[in-house]
Amino acid sequence: MKTIAALAALLLSLPAVAENAAPNLDIANPLTVTIHHSMQQRHSRLVKFLEPGVIGLQRNGDLGVRDHSRLGKVATRQIVEKLLDAENSDRQALIAAVAYAHNRKDAIEEFRRLMAAKWAKEMKPGWWLQDENGTWFQKP
User: Fold this and answer.
1) Is residue 57 assigned to a domain?
2) Which of 133, 126, 100 lies closest to 47 in space, CA to CA?
């Protein structure tokens, strides 16, 4: 009984999280860890197309082809399409998993905007991003 009372006292002593506090976008649960692992496994292959500016981060947080003329061969196009399909599918799943982990499944679009901003910050200088109007620019 003392253990339960001590735990209750500890929980009551913790500061309450304000409703307007920024959500934890790096939340770790089995689903988000699995999705992150999948994305990490693909990252080095994506970098090969991010570095030369063939692909970039779209304003919605997905990766997309920025310069179709630089794709070249059909085989390269198919590789890029498969990479982007897998990556964007994982990004959408991660956004949903984070929203659900915060018990905010009604706010998936809000989490999509937050994650897109987070991913934009993580892009390296020289990589391409889209602004709010859909215009491509290189990150300084």
Assistant:
1) yes
2) 126
Q: Does residue 86 fall inside a structural domain?
A: yes
Helix (H), strand (E) at residue 81:
helix 74-101
Give the pLDDT score at 5. Answer: 54
Say if residues 23 and 104 touch (Cβ distance below 8 Å): yes
Q: Is residue 9 part of a domain?
A: no
What are the pLDDT digits (tens) for 91-106? 999 999 999 999 998 9
Average pLDDT, the chain: 88
What pLDDT shows up at residue 15?
A: 40
Count of structural domains, the chain: 1
| CB 108 within 8 Å of CB 116 | no
Cβ density class 8-29: b for 16+ within 10 Å, e for less: eeeeeeeeeeeeeeebebeeee
